Amino acid sequence: MSPWTSHTSMPSINNQFRKTPLLGAFLLLTCFLGSSISWAQQQQDLQAIQEQIKAKKEQVAKQLQEAKKLQIQLERSEVNIANTVKALKKTQAALVDNNNQRSSLAEKRETVQTQIQQQQKGLAKLIKSAYMTGNYDFAKMLLNQRDAANFERTITYYQYLNTERKTKIDEFRLLVSELESVNLQLEQKQAELRSLQVDQNAQQIELTEGKATREATLASIRSAIESDEAKIEILQQNEKSLQDALAKAQREAEKQKQTFAGLGKAKGKLLTPAKGELMRMFGRIRQGQIKWKGIIIKGEVGSAVIAVHQGKVLYADWLRGFGLVTVLDHGDGYMSLYGHNQALLKQAGDIVDAGETIALLGQSGGQSYPNLYFEIRHKGQPVNPTTWLKL
Q1: Are 77 and 210 in contact (CB under 8 A)?
Q2: C-beta separation of 175 from 121 below 8 A
């Protein structure tokens, strides 16, 4: 082996540092600078992430603020629609009643006209009978005393004819007066009909405009809420609003003396609250970790929403995320909730029977199609409604 072999093969770092101190200093400086650059980059990355998080929070907060303003507009639109629908429903009922009254008056007029014709015929017969008797007058009969018996019969018959004729004439006058009254009532009903039709047309226009305003507001809400974070936050806020409303309603219910037996014995026997397609949503994921606490029944706009059991109206108002809502207290901690209605027909404090119509099915609360949102809660906790309804 050459004496140079061991000297030139892979010297250790320490030996190299000792032999070339400048090289060692350079390597140490390079390591230090590399570590410094890595740490600085991490700091920059961390700051960038923090800025992104801040920007995201600001974006979500802005979306929520905009959504809150739009929800106020939505509430106003849907409450106006509900009021218009109720007014229109009242007008339509008045139109039906007006039509029935006019039909009844027309039948009465026909009956009176028939009676008048019969009275005219009766009077004609009396006049003819009076003529056949010779149109005797009292002066003639007093001077003619040759046949006393005939005179007595004639005067008696004459008096009978006179009395009968007077009665018929009085009845005829009454019938004519009644006919005039019926005709006047018919004219009034016709005027009332025209006024109701004007109201109905105005209400239809108002309803159409209200729906258009609502759709524009919904489009703005959908445009404002873009992120999943905002959607989840809104659902959580809606749930809290519902919880607060139910808690308040429950406190009010506890103050009342009116009590009901609850739903315990009615499990599986409760009436279905609306006609339509049942969607078993209870317990399913809605958004993020938020689950459905009720069911959806797709139905027709304006169809009846009925009470599933006897109870008392605890809450009847618009609620964010749920639209026009009615909540019934059934006693023993049981409550039923009916949301997304088009209009509410009962007020807080009303007592309702099972099967009684309490609302009209709709799509309030920002729904894109008509449906009923239905919940049952026991002592504040939601239970699966499908196990309680008679399906």
Answers
A1: yes
A2: no
